[in-house]
Amino acid sequence: MSRLKAEHLYKVFGRRPEEAVSRLQQGADREELRGEGTTAAVVDASFEVEEGHIFVVMGLSGSGKSTLLRMLNGLLPPTSGRVLFDGQEVTSLPPKELREVRSKQISMVFQHFALFPHRSVMENAAYGLEVQGVPREERQERALEALELAGLKGWEKSWPDELSGGMQQRVGLARALATDAELMLMDESFSALDPLIRRDMQDQLLELQKTLKKTIVFITHDLNEAMRLGDRIAVMRDGRIVQTGTAEDILVRPANDYVASFIQDVDRSRVLTAGSIMEGRRGGASVDGAGSAHVTAETPLADLFNPLASDDAEMVVTDENGTPVGVVDRERLLSALAEEPQVAQGSNGPRDGEQEDGTEVKAGA
Amino acid sequence: MPDFHPGEWVESAVDWLQGHLAWLFDFINSVLTGLYDGVNAVLGGGEPLLMAGIFAVIAFWLRGLLGAVATFVGFALIDSFGLWSDAMSTLSLVIAAAVITIAIAVPLGIWAARNKAVSGVLRPVLDVMQTMPAFVYLIPGVMFFSIGTTPGLIATIIFSMPPGVRMTELGVRQVDGELVEAAEAFGTSPRETLTRVQFPLALPTIMAGINQVIMLALSMVVIAGMSGASGLGERVYAAVTQVQVGLGVESGIAVVILAMYLDRMTGALNQRVSPLGRRAAAKAAAALGSMRFVRYKPGTAVALSGVVVLALVAGGINIAGSGDDDTAGGGSSNVGKGEKVSMGYIPWDEGIATTYLWKELLEQRGYKPDVKQLDAGPLYSGIAQGDVDFQTDAWLPTTHEQYWSKYKSKMEDLGDWYGPTSLELATPEYVKGINSLEDLKGQGKKFNGKIIGIESSAGEMKILKDKVLPEYGLEGEYDVVSSSTSSMLAELKRSYQKKEPVVVTLWSPHWAYNEYDLTKLKDPKGAFGEGEKLHTVSRKGFSEENPTVASWLSNFKMTENELTSLENEIQNAPKGQEQEGVKTWLKDNPDFADKAAPVPGGDVKKGKDAGKPVNMGFFPWDEAIATTYLWENVLEDRGYKPNVKQLDPGPLYTSLAQGEMDFQTDGWLPTTHEQYWKKYGSKMSDLGAWYDETSLELSTPEYVKGINSMEDLKGKGDLFDNKITGIESSAGEMKILKDVLKEYDLDKEYKVVSSSTSSMIAEVERSVKQKKPVLATTWSPHWVYNKYPLKKIKDPKGAWGEGDSIRVTAKKDFKKDFPELHGWLKDFKMSEDDLNSLEAEIQNGAKGEEKKSVRKWMDARPGLVDKLAPVK
User: Fold this and answer.
1) Which CATH number describes the domain made up of B6-45+85-273?
2) Does the distance separating the beta carbons of B179 and A118 come in below 8 Å?
3) Residues with Cβ within 8 Å of residue B184, at least 6 apart in sequence
4) A116 to chain B: which residues are within 8 Å by CB?
5) What confidence tens digit (pLDDT) does each residue in B67-104 have?
6) Whether the Cβ atoms of residue A64 and residue A42 lie closer than 8 Å to each other
7) Would the CB atoms of A116 and B188 count as touching at under 8 Å?
8) CA distance to partner chain B, nearest, from residue A17 (Å)
9) What structural domains does chain A harbor?
10) ipTM associated with this complex
11) What part of B 38-67 touches A (C-beta under 8 Å)?
């Protein structure tokens, strides 16, 4: 069941935005509008996020991803379209109820942490609860819990300016966790951190997610991060979502050259899994599991290098029940790594963004 | 181009507002005045040094030890300038203005930060407020609110508002957008976003704005002084317009001290009130390490309790003090009616003490005592000749025997007030084995053969040399060094500190016995003679002419305790301020004054309206100063309560027309003040001229040859740099001057530089000193003609017009309110000689002491008060 649903969201800044939306719906070009001084930040964005999933929106700066995120909790009202959370239409709520939803059900983590410099770590973490009007003792208790979850136990009396960037963002995370909101919006939350710390934070988020099972919308411009975190990924360009799918979908079957150029630098061995490159034998001969090494379908290719380098034999790939579903040999591994991603419909031009719904595109190969 | 004068509309709008919204202005006036009075009552009420202590504790709290010390020194300095109450008035003005300004500016700034339209409308308004010359709204301010504190407050508020609004707007806008967004993302309402996030984060900038507000408010006090707000501004304004450089500098320094205090305190306040400031201060303190104690600041609670304790003490003293004032001021204590009493004294401690005691007592009783310090000889001969009325320090029968026997036929003994005294030699107690005069024999070497004496004229010296030394066989062994009492005491102090043996000539009572451990050397042979008594002696006839004072003096008694404590108080008072010591002592002995100088049943010639306050205004023209202070003195003698206020002509006429002021003496009519009379004449009354035949003219120093008439000026422009030094551009004479120049065809050749009367006089002085040619715009009567060798340039064409007469002008209902005074003023006349000598007396007197100078002039003219203000 999808917790969060965005339907044909448009956001246009500038003069007469409604008119601009109807022109966009009739196929007008974004550049055309820009010439008239109106900026279409988000154009016809639709997606659904399942409960407990991390949905990553990926795009370069100016692609409209942050605008999209802010429409989800009503910080920016959409020009057209609607957002449904738990079946409730967020976009049509009156201000007071919208604030209620924000304080209890949707929390947010910011790119530059947005910690209040005049409040201690504890007071920052407890901010959301304070707004809700939770009594002092309870909110301190819950803030402490959240800080502990974020790995900041013992720092609650410190001040934000005494903490490193990574620790500051942990405070930001604790602040978002403390309210027990089901939906967390994370706006490039790790982008401002050093690569090593960023990785730590990603690991921690995945770790937390195992127990907390929040529904998360995560914005990033870093494809590696998107692939690591995202259960599903939406790639945005020029205000439009050009492809939505799993990491593998995007890596193996990029919707267009734009996406393809994006994924060039991705470490394929860490994204592709044994299951995605195995030679299936469901239809023909059964897989003989005896004697060979076993790996699960989710094993990343990087983990196959060692066994396959020393052994000529095939690796048997099993499903979650241990039933063999296919095999991978050395040749298959190498060709998978060497493979150039194939764009579905061979338009090589720079302006191939017209493709509105990348999910429908089937990858060849 | 068609003429366009929006000013006319404003003028009629002002008229309309005056007529229709008077209730509103009255309301604003009472609110502002009330606020100011409240603050001033708190600040001005306390004992200066205690208040300085309170300020220092606040500085300690905000800035640490160094700030506290600097604050105390600074405020003590203001007090020592004698500007304390002025400084407190100014501080109250600044605080009242700042409170109102901040209460308006901060909400406005927040509104502007959150609303672009408001911001857009406010910006030009703020620009106007900041750049419009303050005089422009100060004058309407006087029209609406009358002179006093309110127009000054309003001008200050208008002027200091813009930075408060701007900095608040900037501060709120400056808050990181992501933080505001974060607050919104967690469901914070706009109002709470303001109070929880934007305001605390903007506070450092807002505090900087408040600092600016306060500094600008302070910079406006001088201008506020022009509209009659009391305080340092008034002092500075008066000093500048009357060319009193010294007073100007002192007031200026006081303003600077206040400014620095306010600036540093509000600057540091940020560290206390804003969370970010506290955070920064904590970090700085942590970084300081071992030097922390220098920056130690007491906690808020500690500082607060310090302030409260000092405030309570100050309040307590104030209540006690005001009680004293009541007894002193209660009843009709003006027995003397300004009668002059001349006192002389020899600078001996008990003489100084009692003389200043009587000076203070006589002043309290309305006399004008004059005190002269003299040597004994001149003093006695002065009394004998009648130049000095009395002295209190006659040692009889021994010490002053020579004088008494010589002059006793021309003197009266008003009895003794202390006794018996004793004369003696004394040594410090550490000189062992010397207890009696007999012990001195053979010890001459120990004391270098010296006995430290006092004035050679003193009787004690004579007795010592002629009787005591031969009696004890000390002649030859000891040399009596005659010097002075103060040298003797200095020598005693020096020896005492070094523990050297010394023998000094002393007497009892003397404070030296309190100060040092001394042995009075016994006189077993009685060579010093019997103890004496201290008598008050007066000139012959004093008790007849001045029975009241004489009876006080005959009944005068002092105990040793009273005398030594009074001497000590005077010793502790700063040099030259003996009377301050007396005042302090009288506070500790509240009953003394009434016991020593009881007020007899009133035989005072009071006016019919005695006790009624009279408001007199003047602008700083010399004849105005002279006559205003003259009438202030006269009215005080007649029991009125005159209030004198210096104002510019515009505000003065306005307030006369409104009935805020009762009268002024310097109306130049029909020409010079024509503009004011035209406008307000119908709302005023004219009490007639007291001086006729004034004239306006240009003048030049006598050493500038060949310039005697206006016609001579033609073609001589180069000589004077083509410049005529003018006075205030608002003066009528300046307008006429332009026509005069046209008449003599000089308008192309000469440029009239408008400045102020004081600048004009300064320019004349400068030129005369350098013997340079100068053309000054002057008028008669004026003391400038007495002081500098100026000649009036003749006006053969009569272009300057007829001379004005100087008239007393008053409010409309003056005759009804002050029938008696109305009569006096109507008959008021002054000759040029009288006026010139009065102005000269003021010029020669101390600056800021005009009233005293006038009193001096009046004292030289007995019967003047009865002539000016006859009472049946």
Assistant:
1) 1.10.3720.10
2) no
3) A75, A102, B193
4) 179, 182, 197, 201
5) 899 999 999 999 998 888 889 989 998 999 999 999 99
6) yes
7) no
8) 21
9) 51-68+82-263 (3.40.50.300), 269-338 (3.90.1280.20)
10) 0.79
11) none
